[in-house]
Amino acid sequence: MSNPLSPPWLSEPVDANTLHHGVWPSSARRNARGELEFGGVPASELIHAYGSPLYVVDQGELETRAKRFRDIVMRACERNATVGHVYYASKALITGHVVQWVSGQGLGFDVASGGEMAIALAGGAPASSLEFQGNNKSEAEITEAVKAGVGCIVIDAPIEAERINAIAGAMGLVASVMVRVNTGVHADTHEYLATAREDQKFGLSPSETAKLVAVIRQHTNLHFEGLHSHIGSQIFQVEGFLEAGTRLIALYRELLEEGPVATINLGGGFGIAYTEADEPMELEAMMNQIVDHVASEASKYGIALPHLAFEPGRLISGPAGVTLYSVGVTKPVVVHDDDGQEATRLYVSVDGGMSDNARPALYHASYSARIASRESEAEPALVRVVGKHCESGDIVVTAEYLPGDVTPGDVLAVPATGAYCYSLSSNYNALGRPPMIGVSDGHHFLMVAGESIADVLARDQGFAVKAGS
């Protein structure tokens, strides 16, 4: 019988060593010693080489997922007599290696800051393959984008059109721009992830967009490329995309009366499985339905389908990542459920936490876990994996069944951490950020160096002043 403290979606496994399909990288498996391997490399070898905690990224998984998404979009668009574009959402995870891997699969990059733009360019991505977004792009960032020749700048407010036109004019250049449209479609997701409502910081209403496009077309240093939409994140169903497509095509038809509109970008937000309870819609079926629907809407008006673009991020990098932790303390806690029934939850404390994965604290996100260093025949026990930070909300995995003999010294693996974990990481409690390593075909290599306490102290100029006084 399951622990009464277990959430309804979590079932007690017959074998707490088993890896749930769809949550882990396809290369994840247990070797003859019962130890987890990723990309053909045992977890113990990685911990020995780089320490713990440790971000692990499976290069083959990431590249395969990038190529598959691009291929699906290309096929769906070709079938509907148009061109498809895919831009990787860099905010999910961007490093020099990731840029090379993603660019190598023919994807462009959606960047949301001068820093992300700099990494993409330094990693070898062609400037023409970049879209630059953000609701408050600085003049310095816009200048760098125009100077570099980024493919498109996505305008989020009317004032930006004037800024971009002035900056491009001073350089004697023409900047290609899109306008982010707030369609009013809200995907079924967490409140803080909703990015297509009227009362929020992103985008313009359709009527505001139409007025702004008229202004853009009057500027000699701006070229209007098209419309951009983003309806949310971690989306499992297709209906939101379909409704957004319907509204965008209606606006597209209106704008065509005054001039060309080359592209509609339907954004990203495609969800992944973090736990056994997550069931995202099959990707190819979802994308085919979206593209076919937009094509059908265009045909109703008797207009040609524009180029279509999409911006997957989490879908590509999320399942490619696993974080390894070392267990330091275990503690059974006896509590009472809503019916007054006594039950025990085992708290498992690891050497990381909300500084390397802020999503559970920010969004109440759920994750899975397995012992990576060994197999166990012990009966499953309900556990909560927590971090070492001075916060009661410092939770890594809210609820999971692990072998009941999980003990200090064990290595735990938390899957689907390739998106928004490193990107949101911090030095809270003066912890250094973990290193990030890549695995591929039995080899491992450093992607991003970790931070020591000395690295954290080095930024604090107070110590330098004291030493020199």
Gap between N and C termini, in Å? 66 Å
CATH superfamily placement of the largest domain: Alanine racemase
CATH class annotation of the largest domain: Alpha Beta
Number of helices: 13
Do you know the CATH architecture of the largest domain? Alpha-Beta Barrel
Number of domains: 2
Rg, nearest Å? 24 Å
The secondary structure category is alpha/beta
List segments where confidence is low: pLDDT < 50 over at least 5 consecutive residues: none
Global mean pLDDT: 95
Helical residue percent?
A: 25-40%
What do we call the CATH topology of the largest domain? TIM Barrel
Q: Describe the biggest sheet?
A: 9 strands, mixed
Task: Outline the structure in words.
This protein is an alpha/beta fold and 469 residues long. It has 2 domains: 29-58 and 319-458, Lyase, Ornithine Decarboxylase, Chain A, domain 1 (Beta Barrel), CATH 2.40.37; 60-318, Alanine racemase (TIM Barrel). The protein has helices at residues 43-50, 59-79, 96-104, 114-122, 139-148, 158-171, 206-216, 239-256, 283-301, 314-317, 359-363, 453-458, 461-468; strands at 29-30, 36-38, 41-42, 54-58, 84-89, 108-111, 130-132, 152-155, 175-180, 222-228, 263-265, 307-310, 321-336, 342-350, 370-371, 380-386, 395-403, 411-415, 436-440, 443-448. Strands 4, 13, 14, 15, 16, 17, 18, 19 and 20 form a 9-stranded mixed β-sheet that branches. An 8-stranded parallel β-barrel has the order 5-6-7-8-9-10-11-12, surrounded by 7 helices. A 3-stranded antiparallel β-sheet has the order 1-2-3. Strand 16 and strand 17 (395-403) form a beta hairpin. Helix 2 (59-79) runs parallel beside helix 3 (96-104). The chain is globular and about 70 Å long. The termini are far apart.
